[in-house]
Amino acid sequence: MNLDDLEPIKTKTKVKDLEPMGLEELNEYIETLALEIERARIEISRKEKHRQGLDGLFKA
Q1: Would I find Coiled coil among this entry's keywords (predicted)?
Q2: CB 16 within 8 A of CB 29
């Protein structure tokens, strides 16, 4: 088994065309992105805490 098979498939995010969007749409888009960023930060924090717990377990 190749270890690369265990890695999640990474896809590039497509860049959204902002030109046709109005001001209200752009502001809503920014709010959506801000919520998604916060969700990602929460997940990072959760994974860091999990890793710290495992590090403590194996260093003992």
Answers
A1: yes
A2: yes
Residue entry with tokens 């001001």: 23
Three-state DSSP at 19 gives: coil
Alpha carbons 5 and 29: distance in angstroms, whole number: 34
The runs of H, that is alpha helices, within the chain are 23-59
Is residue 35 classed as helix, strand or coil in its secondary structure?
helix
* Contact of 26 with 34, CB cutoff 8 Å: no
Q: How much is the pTM?
A: 0.65
Q: Which long-range contacts (CB under 8 A, 24 or more apart) does 51-54 make?
A: none
